[in-house]
Amino acid sequence: MALDLSEKKINQTKMEYNFREIEKKWQQKWVENKTYRVVEDESRKKFYVLNMFPYPSGAGLHVGHPLGYIASDIFARFKRLQSLNVLNPMGYDAYGLPAEQYAIQTGQHPEKTTTENINRYREQLDKIGFSFDWDREVRTCDPAYYKWTQWAFRKMFGSYYSNDTKQARPIEELISHFEQQGSKGLNAAQSEELDFTADKWKAMSEKEQQQTLMNYRIAYMGETMVNWCPGLGTVLANDEVVDGVSERGGYPVVQKKMRQWCLRVSAYAQRLLDGLDTVDWTDSIKETQRNWIGRSEGTEMQFKVANQDFDFTIFTTRADTIFGVTFMVLAPESELVERLTTESQKKEVEEYLAYVKKRTELDRMSDRKVTGVFSGSYAVNPFTGDKIPVWISEYVLAGYGTGAIMAVPAHDSRDYAFAKHFGLPIVPLIEGADVSEESFDAKEGIVTNSPADGKTALDGFSLNGMTVKEAIEATKTFVTGHGLGRVKVNYRLRDAIFSRQRYWGEPFPVYYKDEMPYMIPEDKLPLELPEIDEYKPTETGEPPLGRAKKWAWDTVKNEVTDKSRIDNHTVFPLELFTMPGFAGSSAYYLRYMDPKNGKALVSKKADEYWQNVDLYVGGTEHATGHLIYSRFWNKFLHDLGVSCKEEPFQKLVNQGMIQGRSNFVYRVNSDDHDKAPVFVSLGRKDQYDVTPIHVDVNIVDNDILDIEAFKAWRPEYANAEFIFEDGSDSQNASHTSDSTGRIYKCGWAVEKMSKSMFNVVNPDMIVEKYGADTLRLYEMFLGPVEQSKPWDTNGIDGCHRFLKKFWNLFYDNRTGESLITLDAPTADQLKSLHKLIKKVTQDIENFSYNTAISAFMICVNELGQSKCHSREVLRELIILLAPFAPHIAEELWEALGNEGSVCDAQWPAWEERYLVESEMQLTVSFNGKARYQKTFPMDAQNADIEKAVLEDERSGKYLEGLQMLKVIIVPKKIVNVVLKK
Ligand code: ANZ
């Protein structure tokens, strides 16, 4: 029965799938109707989807960028269709080095380029049809936003970390502890162990008190070794340095000791570790974080210095090896070096220290070169009384443990290499342990040589006969029981260096009085970034903010004032450092919950409604930087009662990279620079001496070069000659390629998608040619979201054709007439539909979008073949497609006569009863040889099957003249007729 068109609003004829018109129309409607605006709604369950927000670079988006955004948008739309209240915001990580480098080169204010880049990003994003609630947009460089970054920093400055309550506490509590009992009984995270009485505290000057507090503050000013990048004029975080050069710009990085702001991230090490057990992240990211945090449980032990009245402490994870210690090693930076270096060794030690100064921490850890020097002093083994030499070597790091170790060359590879190199004794302790260059790691086995033969140990202590595990425990107990040391947990995680000597970042809300930092009052935030004349350091080497004229703090009027008024009495200089890139990205997810709030980072109400991010999508490159800092930041805010959840990101999905497919032309090498350049086609290049040159992929089609376009692209090759694939050349024929072999074939390789490799594909171009819905489908169809894969446009037509086929279920592609009927669907059509509902629902939940799309293609083919135009079926199909291809879905949803947006429809549920198979197909064999297929009702009895097979005319020739012995039926699979030969 044809649908009564006069009643329904579906009587327009539509000739073809006009994606340009449709996408424009719906993008406008979404804006007009505020389709993606979301408000807190207590009556509905929330779902928070978040993308790692982009840094708006000058190059704009390429097809790799939207991959994660599309994946999360599909999920957001899916959850909304399942009736959840979905928050899906977007914003910009707007501070950063590239804009500032550009500013230095061109004199343009980085704010200007940043805004231009943001506008370009927005334009590109809008074309792809995301369901972002743009009313919630944040930009980290906006004062209304960074007010809360400064606010959090101020709170960190005003807090210390209590190891007793395992949380951040107000610094006032610490002050009152000091007033009452000095440092006694304090169990707090600290830079170094301090020991003072209440009287001593009270007798300190203000400056001394401030210096003391700095030892405990969560945001503190510390003297640390930093990665200094002279080329950029700033320090960099470890994750901003790759292979000794800056990640951005590739400038060399050196080690330098400097005063810097630091965040006491290390205080949260255990909580950062524990939290990993509560989140749904991949094992590999969790493992990366665990390694970064690097928890190590061991023992600190005291060793006396021979003939001197003092001892020092070492950290070991293998206390059980105490009887194999044959020397001690100090880090070159250790304060002990000076005390333990004897007169006769002084010169040698000084030379060695000068050498080490030039080496970075990375060199020292990765380099296997053995270097070191004897201090001249000896230590005493507390268990045996043996005198052992104390050495100094760069393989012991100052910042880890105590910066001093007991060396056990029989069971530690670095100690072994050292002992071999300097001819020190090696004493094996564990039975069967193979003491050789390769194998030391004797963490299992029976201890046999502890104490070594003929030696006596303190109180007759012996480890012989124990397993390593037992021996470690026994030693720990002995050490603590005899006052020789204590059990200690160490973490590799370091405090984060939090200042940069740059312009384009958040200013610190800090002024300096008597060299000590003080915070400007909370109600005076934000402290806005001042204008400066140039964006580089001053002549005297101060950071760029040193150029600002109005950059002092008036403590009477509580306002920024002119630097000329500084009297260090009521007017003080402001901080010249700015905050690093990760400052603004550490709590942005909280701000999206309540982006316009002028009174708080986020209101209690909004925070309690949205809680935390349910699904976070972003790249693995943030595994140790952003994902550690933001977890730390959130835990701190949690301690303050601002964020109700301990962990910010419940589920994390890492999208893979879309790589570029680069193309090359091959230039024949020649010394004759007057001759026209010659390029040889791929298949002939091995006959020449050539240099491959990247060529813009946009002038190559199916690896065939558009020669005219190439000449236009690179004017220096305007007179170039070409040797074609068939060996002919351009000199003695026309310049146009043809398919008969007179073509120039390019080579190709899969590389990172990047402007410098000319392999960037712009999503705008794809949208222009095929539409956003095709782009969305195609990016997901390329393969599993988490996998990296090359961009390859070959399959894009298939996705586009699929959408056309989908359209043709609704409209006749010749007449444009509506085909929709009120006919009841057939059982087969219902089966196709419900199979699809089940598959798509489950696949979306598992982020297996590519398989969901394949299922869609199969289903649309089935429905097309069975000429299904049933409104009942098509309605559900539209809803299923809506997360993937929202524009076409809206258009067809409207065509079916629905009011409003398909976004507010209800996700269909599949019914198992439609999925039940009603028929089965059996393979019929004779003496084990498969001959043909036959279909039976699902409930057919064996006797009926046998009868039908024997009567089937196709069986005749196999049965002829032979005696039938029996018929074997394997349910739902095979019928085998056994004949006597
Ligand atoms: C004796 C020993 C014997 C060790 C043995 C290991 C094996 P993790 O697990 O990483 O914490 N160590 C301690 N402080 C160090 C420093 N500042 N620089 C370099 N190495 C240091 O490693 C702890 C082990 O690394 C410690 O245990 C110590 O060597 C060394 F068969 O002590 B061990």
Automatic annotation (TrEMBL):
Motif mapping: 'KMSKS' region: 752-756
One Pfam family from the record: Anticodon_1
Residue ranges of domain Methionyl/Valyl/Leucyl/Isoleucyl-tRNA synthetase anticodon-binding in the record: 830-941
GO biological process, alphabetically ordered: leucyl-tRNA aminoacylation
Molecular function, one GO term: ATP binding
Listed GO CC annotations: cytosol
Keywords, in A-Z order: Aminoacyl-tRNA synthetase, ATP-binding, Cytoplasm, Ligase, Nucleotide-binding, Protein biosynthesis
Domain Methionyl/Leucyl tRNA synthetase: 49-156
Subcellular location: Cytoplasm
Enzyme Commission no: 6.1.1.4
Superkingdom classification of source: Bacteria
UniProt-listed InterPro entries: aa-tRNA-synth_I_CS, Leu-tRNA-ligase, Leu_tRNA-synth_edit, M/V/L/I-tRNA-synth_anticd-bd, Methionyl/Leucyl_tRNA_Synth, Rossmann-like_a/b/a_fold, tRNAsynth_Ia_anticodon-bd, Val/Leu/Ile-tRNA-synth_edit
Amino acids binding ATP: K755
SUPFAM superfamilies: Anticodon-binding domain of a subclass of class I aminoacyl-tRNA synthetases, Nucleotidylyl transferase, ValRS/IleRS/LeuRS editing domain
Residues of the Leucyl-tRNA synthetase editing domain: 290-475
Catalytic activity: tRNA(Leu) + L-leucine + ATP = L-leucyl-tRNA(Leu) + AMP + diphosphate
Similarity comment: family membership: Belongs to the class-I aminoacyl-tRNA synthetase family.
Protein name: Leucine--tRNA ligase
Originating species: Segatella buccae ATCC 33574
